Amino acid sequence: MKKTKKMLAAMLAVSTLAAALSGCSGGNKTDGSLEFTEAASADGNNGTTEAGASESSEAKIDPNGEKPSPEGYGILREASTAKIGSLNPLTYTQSYASTQIKRSSMTLYGYFPSADYTACEIAGELAAEEPIQMDEEGKVWRIKIRENAKWENGDAIDVDDVIYSFKMCLDPLMVNSRASQLASDYITITKASDYSLQGNAGTVAWEDVGIKKADDYTLELQLDAPVTEEDIKAHFNYVWTCLVHEPTYEACMSEDRSTNTYGSTREKYMSCGAFILDQWIAGSQFDMKKNPDFVLGDKIKLDGYNYKIVGDRNTALELYLNGELDAVSLSPESIEQYIDDPSIKKAPATSIQTLTINHGNTNNNGILGNLNFRKALFYAIDRESIAKMTNGIPANYLVASKCLGLDGQAYRDMEESQALLEPNLGYDSAKAKEFYDKALEECGLTSLTLTLQYNETSANNKAASEFLHKSLPEVFGDSFTLELMAGSTSVLNSYIKGWKEGDPNSFELQWRGWNTSTAAPWNGLKVYSSMYSNKNEPYYNDEFDALWEKANYDIEAKLDPAYRMDLTRQMEKIVLDEVAACPVYEAPSYNLISSKIHLVCDEYIPGYGFGYILSTKD
After folding, report:
1. What is the pTM of this model?
2. What are the φ/ψ torsions at residue 381 (nearest 5 degrees)?
3. Does pLDDT of 422 surpass 80?
């Protein structure tokens, strides 16, 4: 075996160990705050005994009128405050949409619980086996897919479906928000970025892109740099690598092929995953039924899902208590009441709630682009008080506490990571006022009014916003006013998209949160890189970009976990020093889960969740 092969084998061992120790990216979320990547659940009790029935013929009556099967009802009933606008895996933005997409579609690889249900591991879903290295360098790989996969209408799935889905994601005319991640994340696919960014120039042909058909059931990948098989698997577990159905997708294409409505209604979507989307009442309800042809169907015991959209989490709690849901994520005001309930289960926060800052906003003489003002904002926030009112954890950092460091230790618990943080959780009113006064002088202002936007369904961010509305003027003085604006998810998303579409003043401050990789914090920091097309704020830093590329692509970083972790800390230090976004708190979720639901794990699996999809129900 040549030296390069040995190096790649060592890299594989390191990355496999990291995955085993840490769990995987993903999680559960139900607060209406805007978080990106995985969704949440709210569910409850069910069933009474029909009066007069004999013991031998006793029938269970479900509040939703479900017909019992020999195994039980088998329908897991959830709720969320978040409306879902699209199930298009190539363009989705919210975590709760990604959960529904993943349930009803497939990726090449996915995360599954380990044998003892204490961690999670990555394995083939559509892929039939591990990736196969085809060259000495580790730049050419093949993936064999299962030959028994089908769309819900019975159409067979082969490698052409995979290639079409990737081609549409990278389409240069549609400019999909997920194209940059498919092109270059854990791996960099040859010519993929050039193809997706060319617009209508036509200078890069699809045939030049390193996504090839080896045979009907084998995909070939040609890459710019050596990678491990763990890199390949991690790259192709993301929701944006889910399949789209070519005939349906083409029928949803606009005449000029610049937009597509795939996944906007039940009729414009085709399932192939563990569950089939059976009914979609816009803004109200999703119903899914078990897919009898799912390639891993033996793992799925539930008959289906019922997913309701509710106005708030207190409404969801009422439905749970009435036996109409099977689990519910508690609102902050309900946690204390139910904290001793034996059915409660705690899940770690999946994201840090941050104040996203529109650095490019030109109002107020561009003060949001002024570093002194952003530092003033950072030091002016009393995170401890906000954490208490949200039952959260104060966060003066931008790598979440769920993320793994070295030797099984949490990244945040490492001494070197602790050294990055400001004392007193970053709260220093005197320093905040000093930076504020400097910023006003530098921007030629005598007063300042800003607007903070928050999701109308998020009790946490509403409470935190109202606290900041009062407390920030107490720090900065009468010259500062913070106005508040509540909005729906779609409205807030449109403001975030505004600066990307030519309106630099589309928003000023907005609550957002990123749910990034538990196992690979160096990769999760991509959300602050220049290349990340789905970023929230117009923040760019060449030094940060170079560090991110080194941490994710350099062979030295892949072979040396301590060096890679040092690169991660250097990246976090840059975004903290420049206040790329202003971290405030993390909010663990507290969930009531009906005794009728039998989970595969006793506790939350880091990066995987409670495993509802693998559960059974009485």
Report:
1. 0.75
2. -95, 120
3. yes
